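Dear support,

Our group has been running a series of protein-ligand predictions, and this particular one with serine is the one our PI (initials K.S.) wants archived with full inputs and outputs. We had some confusion internally about which version of the output was final, so please treat the block below as the authoritative record. The input we submitted was:
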Amino acid sequence: MRTSEIAKRFVTYFEKQGHLVMPSASLISPNPTTLFTIAGMVPFIPYLLGEQTPPSRRMTSNQKCVRTLDIDEVGKTTRHGTFFQMLGNFSIGDYFKKEAIHYAWDLLTSPQDQGGYGFEKDKLWVTTYTDDEEARSLWKTEGMDPEHMQVLGMEDNFWTTGGPGPGGPCTEIYVDRGPEYGPDGGPIASESRYIEIWDLVFENFEVDNVKSKTNLHIVGELANKNIDTGMGLERVAYLLQGKQNIYETDEIFPVIEEAERLSGRKYGDDPEDDVRFRVVADHVRSALMIMGDGVRPSNEGRGYVLRRLIRRSIRAMKMLGVEQEVFPHLLPVSEAQMKLSYPELESSFAEVSETAFGEEAAFRRTLDQGSTILDVAISQAKKDASEKGQEQPVVSGKEAFTLHDTYGFPIELTTEIAREQGVGVDDRSFRELMAEQKQRARADALKKRHNVDLSVYDDAKKALAKPIEFTGYKEFSSRGT
Ligand code: SER
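Confirmed final output from the archive:
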């Protein structure tokens, strides 16, 4: 089943249950606490909080999302993507636990020829929140094996956006991939065997001050008992398509194939190369989608996230032995897949491509300038470590700083390149040098300001140096007459 078909089935199912189909909102988050839309529920926050009236009390959507918190996991696990799509059904004070659990079970287990996903019932597992007996009994009524239900606490089964906003206890649904992927024992026992696909949140609380999952402050109950659910489209796709991970699904894999062609290497031949192939496929798609929503590379905020994604893709391709420009080849392949679901990509693609190609060319110049210096620093670090009998060679903070300051090499890049060769970077001393530089710049700016001010005073001083002729009597007397 193609990814787009899985998405279509979801929204069609919920439309039949009286839900209004909402279009995906932009990736640029309307929520000021996050840069990107990180979950399907983000556009619905004002409705969930009761601040705005929803167009319908039942809604469903397939929302574009970006999360880069786990960027280092991309390519290494089966399921981490920086761009992903979250399918969801939302009830704003309409139905609650009973219907949410029933719909989920029904859609997951109904046969494929009847519009469902056809998952085998005995492959499904759920976790529920500590004292949520109601959810457990509802799952049992649907037909879930009681042995396949596990109880988790605040850390795992109380959902929040990570900042102030709506939140609540949840029940998560998992698919068992089978004993070849990990030990028995349910989601608690193995993350790689039991894949979380869908989270049903019983979202009737407002939280603030979210320091950590176990240290959050519940402001109180919301006016409405809401339902917010999120299903990972790419995860369901890889399970239904019988693939090993999200990167091998129909929307993502063609980029890997293009990267194979460019590099002359084969996906599946070498575990380290495979991670690189997956990073490329993930990051090129994310960069495309982020640019499609109007973000352009820059040195801060969203633009910097985009810049990192583009640079990491180019670096991964370099590690695959590709020296030529890669975006002119990879970006159109990703666009051809993604425009099947997002036809609007087409209208901005010429401009998006031009931006990406320009960014690649600029980055290649940076790489050319800094790479030799970094190579020397890495060899030196290795030599020093072996002479001093140290286990971990480390590039000094001073060298990392020079690379940053003189060659425009961001610290993340230095760290990544060094790490690939088993070498660390003295991050602490780098940060100290950065702080010193900032202080120097601040002091310089202050001095410049003083200089300007002093020159103004100089003029005044000069004027004052002349003898002052007192004309008061004359002027006042003349004015007075
Ligand atoms: N808000 C929940 C999540 O993002 C369910 O949509 O997982």
